[in-house]
Write the structure tokens for this entry.
Amino acid sequence: MSLELSHFLESHKDSLSPLLILTHDYPDPDALASAFALQHLAELNGGIKSRIVYGAVIGRIENQEMVRLLKIPAHKIRPSDFRKHASVALVDTQPGFDNNSFPRGKNPSIIIDQHVVGPLPDADFKLINTDAGATSMLLARELLDLDVEIPVRLATALVYGILSDTLDFYRTAKQETVDTYMRLVPSCDVHMLAHIQNPSRPRKFFRDLARCIARSRIRQKLLVSHLGEVDNPDLVAQMADFLMACEGMQWTFCTGRHGENLHVSLRTSNREVEAGPVLRDIVNHPRHAGGHGQIAGGRFRVGKSQGEEVWEKTEMMLTERLVNRLHLRSNTEFQSLVDFGISKRTEG
């Protein structure tokens, strides 16, 4: 049993309160659940008051439903938040990552994360486990080890955080993660969980899905789709996950333009390979990308004022770098996913 986080919160309660809990800019279920759990632990261990914030938007319909139904008090960050909160906890992200709004050159009080790092960042307390499968698992394990009753809404959030980040355990075979999930399930609301996982979707989602499929190209075991302009960057990751269901694919790579940035997501079905290092190898700077296990993502600035030619050139450059990085055969070329399916049926 390890309760290092709880002991730290209890012994530093006077200096930590009020605590700013910061996720990455576009928080996913794992980040939201982890922040929610840390807020509960902070209150439980010393009455530490806290505020959960994120830098951009909560994009996916599922994530919006999660926040709404579970009443997660997550707020868009305000310029005054860092002035009002001397202590900051980074959850599901780290200083120096390009996916959060934490000021450069400062050190947080707490870091809780599962992502691959180089040198360990400075913080008063660090809980970083790259084998966890989900950051939610780290917080859930802390709550379970405390042997206290976990509120239904929080247990439901943690269950969904684990399920979504492991893609229903497809991305991890760690028994500890599965065991943690199984211990949480009796405390969660499965009906509410089902509603979060299966929300009503606007018609635009299906237009985006159709565009993704229409733009998908296959080359050996790689499937690539450049989505163009997207309303929220979460769609890029969502489409990369969806395309992994395509028979015979080991890699999917999606990009989407949002504001001044090109957002990228990489997925692999190969459990012997880390997606993060592959993606970092093809972007211009390692801090533009990160990941854990079979998933990776990132963003970098292209410039909103740039013309179509510059955006397309950037997308093609990344695709070519990925082809080279994966050592695909030079005598092969990309083929439309739709045409590929037709040709296969014709050949059969």
